[in-house]
Amino acid sequence: MSKPPFDSLDFAIDRDREGRCENQRRLSAAIDIDETKIHQARQVHGRTVVVANGNVEGMLEEHADAIVAEPSSLHAVGVRVADCGPVLVADTASGRVAALHAGWRGIVAGVVSAAINHLLSKNGAGSTRDFIAAIGPCIGACCFEVGEDVAAQIALVSAPEVVVRRDGARDKAWVDLRRVIRWQLRAAGMLDEAIDDVPGCSQSACTRCCAELFYSYRRDGDAAGRHLAVIAAR
């Protein structure tokens, strides 16, 4: 229901509230959740974790990049992206879930470990054994060009191999954001086989490359819409 140039399914919170609400209604119907329980926050590329409390409109004013929904609350949590990595995590034993907004600044700040540690603090077993995660559509290594200084910061909180290519003459590097997120999830204790890439790892899954499927801020700038990754507590 979004108006051009953000058509057709834009979930940005600061424009076209009527269109966003209708888009959320349609999404909720498609995945069988209560549209009035989707909690989101004002994302600031940090590591703050908040817990869904039932005040959906009020939480939109909270500054946070990870949102947790408690078991049996029936709350849903979501993050908006247009190149950054959306990460959904579930503790299948308890039903507790989290949604993470993982751009490079948030990754360097430690949003992934902050969210996993929060889930672990609520987990009586103190183990990620029952955790599963999905890394959603984000910019691919083919297009995620950054300065060498940024690449160094990212590699420092993951591994050198996440930097897949360098152009020394231009002081530029290309980083595999999916690999970074997966590395940090594994470093937090998750099993590799418990982490899914959605829709995959190929260049066709890159938000910047695939204009017919995905919004991309790198490609479209201020004309880019926002995707919404959402998960509901069991």
Task: Give a brief description.
With 234 residues, the chain is of the alpha/beta class. Helix content is 26%, strand content 23%.
Integer-rounded radius of gyration: 17 Å
Main beta-sheet strand count, sense and barrel state: 6 strands, mixed
Query: How much helical structure, as a percent, in the residues?
Result: 25-40%
Widest sheet: strand order?
2-3-6-5-7-11
What's the mean pLDDT score?
Answer: 95
- Compute the number of helices: 7
Tell me how many strands there are. 12
Protein structure class: alpha/beta
Order of helices and strands: HEEHEEEEHHEEHEEHEHE
Shape: globular
- Which ranges are low-confidence, i.e. pLDDT below 50, for 5 or more consecutive residues? none
Gap from first CA to last CA: 29 Å
Percent strand: 15-25%
